[in-house]
Structures are given as C-alpha cells and as structure tokens.
Specification:
This protein is α/β, with parallel strands linked by helices. The chain has eleven helices and twelve strands. The chain has one domain: TIM Barrel, CATH 3.20.20.
Length: about 240
C-alpha cells in the first residue's frame, strides 16, 4: 500500500482544513515546494497535492506553486482541485504532474471523463468525496443526490482505474478513517482505491493496509507529528 503525504495549497501556502471547512484553516508552511522535498527526503514514493482554491473556484489557481513542487522532487505527483477541462488536464500533465484527480467535473460530465480516460488512461483518477454516503462537490460545499458507491461503479464502467475515497466527516479530525465505508467500496469495485480522511495514527495505517487498499493519503497526522513517515516506512 502506497503512502501519499498530502500537500493542500491555499493562497500559495501549505494548509490543512478540518472537515473541509475553509473557515477552519491552519497554515503549516509558506513554501509548499519545500514541504514536498521534506516528504521525499523522509521516504515518500509519491505525493498527493490539492489546489483548494481551485476546488472552490472551479479552475486551477496555484499553477506556479504546483510547477515549483513538480520541479523540486523526483517522485510522482498526483493533483486534484479545480480540474474541469481536457485543456487543463493536458496542461498539467505537460507540466510534469503524473496523475490528475477529477471530482466535481466527473459528476457533471461523464462524457468528458470518458474522453480523458481514452486519451490518458491510468493518469486519470476520480476523487469521490462522501458525506453521509453521498457525493459532495464544489470543494465539499454542496452534497449531491448520488450515492458514492453508485458513482464509483459508473466510473468503473467508463474505464477509470483508480479512485480516491474521502469521508468528509472524518477529514482532519485525526480520529481514524471510515473503515467500514472504505472497505465496502473496495470490495465492490475492481479499481484501485486510495483511502483519505481521518488517519490519525500508525495503527490506522496498519488497519487500512490489511484491507488490501492501493494507498492511503495522510495529511494532518504528519503535520501534527502523530505519524513519523520515516519510522512508519520502516515498520510497515
């Protein structure tokens, strides 16, 4: 199971939110590229970047910062937040981003997802952010009427190979992910599932590892010192 240190970017800085609330923001570093290098030096094999401004506004907002991150590390970077067009996808992949994550747009325009998958295959990842089992959109500010599992199965039919599953209620709380919902989703799809939201301890990571997930995204637990990336890599 791959470990994805998370770097959430808002106003050009590395921040963490609590339960996706933009009013519950904590700035950890002013230079996200420096953070990326720290995680690489500590053994990260891949990074998970989110453009929070992009997610909220529907267009990529921190391209300079993202480019700086890509240039500063020698490991793959996957990016989500505000990616709503094939042109943006192409621009980001050309910039050196390894994989892009589609969220809101995937729900609104399945035809575009199909075109993206036809063009870029496994470099297209779908982010499924769930609130009470239903898909949330637009930077988690709205909840749709579509169940997360139904949406995942639709994406699988289109040809998507990887999904990131986040339970919003758990995100940033350090109280453990939604093991049940994540496990059920993983059992019912043939795609790679990356767990996200709520990881607060190395025991949480061990539990997820036993569930045959493809990966786990860890944010606040790393920044708050609840998990030591180097130590965890040696133990798992």
């Amino acid at each position: 199971m791959l470990i994805y240190p998370a770097i959430d970017i808002k106003d050009g800085k590395c921040v963490r939110l609590t339960q996706g609330d933009f009013n519950e923001e904590k700035v950890y570093f002013n230079n996200p590229a420096k953070v990326a290098k720290i995680w690489e030096d500590k053994g990260a094999k891949i990074l998970h970047i989110v453009d929070l401004d992009g997610a909220l506004e529907g267009r990529s907002k921190n391209l300079d910062v993202i480019q700086e991150i890509v240039k500063s590390v020698n490991i793959p970077v996957q990016l989500g937040g505000g990616i709503r067009s094939l042109d943006t996808i192409r621009e980001l992949l050309d910039m050196g981003v390894d994989r892009v994550i589609l969220g809101t747009k995937a729900l609104e325009d399945k035809e575009m997802v199909k075109k993206a998958v036809d063009l870029y295959g496994g470099r297209i990842v779908i982010g499924i952010d769930a609130k009470d089992g239903y898909v949330a959109v637009e930077g988690w500010t709205k909840t749709s009427e579509i169940k997360a599992l139904d949406f995942a199965l639709e994406m699988e039919k289109i040809g998507v190979k990887t999904i990131v599953y986040t339970d919003i209620s758990k995100d940033g709380m350090l109280m453990g992910p939604n093991f049940q919902a994540t496990g059920e989703l993983n059992e019912k799809v043939d795609m790679d599932v990356i767990a996200s939201g709520g990881v607060g301890s190395i025991d949480d990571v061990r539990t997820l590892s036993k569930m045959n997930l493809a990966g786990v995204i860890i944010g606040k637990a790393l920044y708050e010192g609840k998990i030591d990336l180097e130590k965890m890599g040696a133990e798992l």
